[in-house]
Amino acid sequence: MPSASSQADGLWRLAWTCSAVVEDSLLWRLEQLGIHHTATVREPDREEVVTVLAWLDRQSWSEQQVRELAAPFAPLGAVFQAPPPRFSLAEQTREEWSSSWKRHWRPDPVGNALLVLPAWLDCPPEQRHRQVLRLDPGRAFGTGEHPSTRLCMEALERHQGVVKDALVVDLGCGSGILGITALTLGAARVVASDVDTMAISTSRENGALNGHGPERLQVVHGSSKELVPWVGSGADVLLCNILAPVIMQLAPDFAQLLKPTGGQGWLSGLLTSQADAVRERLAGLGWRTELAATQQDWALLAFTPWEPTPKPDLCRPAAISSTYQP
Ligand SMILES: C[S@@+](CC[C@H](N)C(=O)[O-])C[C@H]1O[C@@H](n2cnc3c(N)ncnc32)[C@H](O)[C@@H]1O
């Protein structure tokens, strides 16, 4: 029986054992409920069955509330003509959580040239050609597993020329994974923020694990407004992987964060079904947007400032082509 103090400090471990076809839908619903501490356990010899795990703070959730939250997941199987997910609930200490979760995490190749490597593992020889990001996400979001994180990481890799020597804003940094990816790809400096204090210490620790000290990775507690004093006349790149309603709320501050000419922003954390609404919101604020990529149900939006179209110079004659014959 756990002591009163360890109980107050402990977690609920929610587990759904289900058909693999139900996994995405289950994880999506958890994400929609704002539950980010999740993992999927696969057994190598039973690919058709997975166990989706989620953790909730026992200080904030009573057992009855957790069971009420889990009840609507039961019919999910029927949607996919699969058996209902088998739900179980257990108590866990933070230490148990940390070690059980770590057991399930493996080196994870992302894009063509990146590897997210759990801080406690060695780089597998077959992945040595990749650029390694050492990470211990602790209790913050961002292991690189989630499509919204991968979409951003892959965009950074595809646009390494934009990232090189850039000042990068990482809004909603979680484990710090996006900022650290940018630094690994050659960014000069990253300024990051998160409303979750756990994310602040975790991002700093992960920065240090990758050799990026406070002179290159500055992490502040807060949101978009708290980043403004750190970006001078504007960052070259802005990354924001937060849910769509929050992105839309923060969008008016983007103009103070991204430089007015040549800045490049990427937004993920939104579902493909939400992309049009987010694009409309940004267009209304004067940004040019593009649906840059999708993964499962998640979308990546690229946004840039509208560049004013140069007015024709009335004093100078139009350029004469070299084939012009008087
Ligand atoms: C989906 S996670 C993304 C973490 C990481 N950047 C990644 O890509 O994996 C979203 C993060 O945004 C933070 N967050 C939520 N609302 C925020 C806000 N208004 N301002 C700043 N951060 C916020 C959360 O605490 C969480 O760490």
TrEMBL record:
Q: Where does S-adenosyl-L-methionine bind?
A: T149, G172, D194, N241
Q: Which Gene3D superfamilies match?
A: Vaccinia Virus protein VP39 (3.40.50.150)
Could you say which enzyme class this protein belongs to? transferase
Q: Secretion signal: which residues?
A: none
> What biological function has been recorded for the protein in this entry?
Methylates ribosomal protein L11.
Which keywords does the record carry? Cytoplasm, Methyltransferase, Ribonucleoprotein, Ribosomal protein, S-adenosyl-L-methionine, Transferase
Q: Which family does it belong to?
A: Belongs to the methyltransferase superfamily. PrmA family.
Q: Which residues form a coiled coil?
A: none
Q: EC annotation?
A: 2.1.1.-
Major location category of this protein: cytoplasm
Recorded hits in InterPro entries, A to Z, give:
Ribosomal_L11_MeTrfase_PrmA (IPR050078), Ribosomal_PrmA_MeTrfase (IPR004498), SAM-dependent_MTases_sf (IPR029063)
Catalytic activity line of the entry: L-lysyl-[protein] + 3 S-adenosyl-L-methionine = N(6),N(6),N(6)-trimethyl-L-lysyl-[protein] + 3 S-adenosyl-L-homocysteine + 3 H(+)
| Name under which the protein is recorded | Ribosomal protein L11 methyltransferase
Q: Which is one Gene Ontology cellular component term of this protein?
A: ribosome
* Taxonomic classification: Bacteria, Bacillati, Cyanobacteriota, Cyanophyceae, Synechococcales
Q: Name one GO molecular function term.
A: protein methyltransferase activity
Give the highest taxon in the source lineage: Bacteria
GO aspect biological process, one term: methylation
Q: Where in the cell is it found?
A: Cytoplasm
The species this protein was found in: Synechococcus sp. SB0676_bin_10
